[in-house]
Specification:
Blueprint: E1 4-15, E2 18-24, E3 35-40, E4 55-59, E5 68-74, H1 81-88, E6 94-102, E7 111-118, H2 122-134, E8 139-147, E9 167-172, H3 175-185, E10 192-196, H4 199-211, E11 219-221, H5 228-232
Parallel strand pairs: 7-8, 7-10, 8-9, 10-11
Antiparallel strand pairs: 1-2, 1-6, 2-5, 3-4, 3-6
InterPro entries: FAD-bd_FR_type, FNR_nucleotide-bd, Riboflavin_synthase-like_b-brl
Domain FAD-binding FR-type: 1-107
Organism: Oceanobacillus indicireducens
Length: 238
């Protein structure tokens, strides 16, 4: 396993609780849209075993042509040891990155694509939308639906409806409205549904989509292949 030690080159305060950390991209390192990476902080490998409290699996919110690996995360006042240590870092400090993998690249199957997320989950979808804007081949249109009660929406310059690009973006601030909209979107029996959020959020979305007849192969989750049955087995009737 290749571990890259790299420097933070920029920290952007997206909202009062959300920051994007841009780190230098090691030469030759590349990735697909919808990729995630392991981010580790100083000291994580100082002992005989890795200190897992200093390692997190994070989505990459940038594309390779942006020449920087962006990691967008929410850091609340009361947070984990990892988030507290991350919050204390500054431009020029070093972090470790390793194990890049993409579970949710943009499928180009001449279908409508629906991006379902909660809050900072938009960070996973940012690269998919940018990739679509750059090349819309074999994608009918994209609709993003995000639930965020803070009203401090992420990436407003990107997640804004653009009819000329066949892209629509929708924000709601409560679960009742959100799941009502998911039911409406699921009327498209041929659509592709990408879901990003907590495990509970994934399961609730899957249940709603299942009730509307959406099949497992139409649902994309940011999970390893071996984890998918845990979430999608109910749809198969198992």
């Amino acid at each position: 396993m290749q571990i890259y030690w790299t420097k933070i080159n920029n920290i952007i305060e997206e909202t009062p609780e959300v920051k994007t950390y841009h780190v230098d991209c090691p030469e030759g390192l590349t990735w697909e849209e919808g990729a995630h990476i392991h981010l580790a902080l100083e000291g994580f490998n100082a002992g005989d075993k890795p200190n897992r409290s200093l390692i997190r699996h994070m989505s990459i919110s940038t594309l390779p042509h942006e020449a920087s690996i962006g990691i967008t995360t929410r850091i609340r006042e009361q947070c984990s040891e990892f988030k507290a240590n991350l919050r204390a870092l500054e431009v020029g400090d070093e972090v470790a990155i390793f194990k890049i993998h993409s579970n949710v690249p943009l499928k180009r199957e001449d279908k409508n694509v629906y991006l379902l997320s909660s809050g900072v989950g938009l960070a996973t979808f940012r690269p998919l939308v940018l990739d679509y804007f750059d090349r819309s081949d074999n994608v009918k249109q994209i609709h993003s639906l995000n639930i965020d009660s803070s009203r401090n929406f992420l990436f407003p310059d990107i997640f804004a409806s653009a009819p000329d690009k066949k892209f629509t973006s929708q924000f709601v601030d409560n679960r009742e409205d959100y799941y009502g909209e998911v039911k409406n979107l699921a009327e498209d029996r041929d659509g592709l549904f990408y879901v990003v959020g907590s495990d509970e959020f994934l399961k609730q979305n899957i249940a709603v989509l299942q009730e509307r007849g959406i099949k497992p192969e139409q649902i994309m989750l940011d999970k390893r292949e071996q984890q998918l049955p845990e979430f999608l087995s109910r749809i198969n009737g198992l």
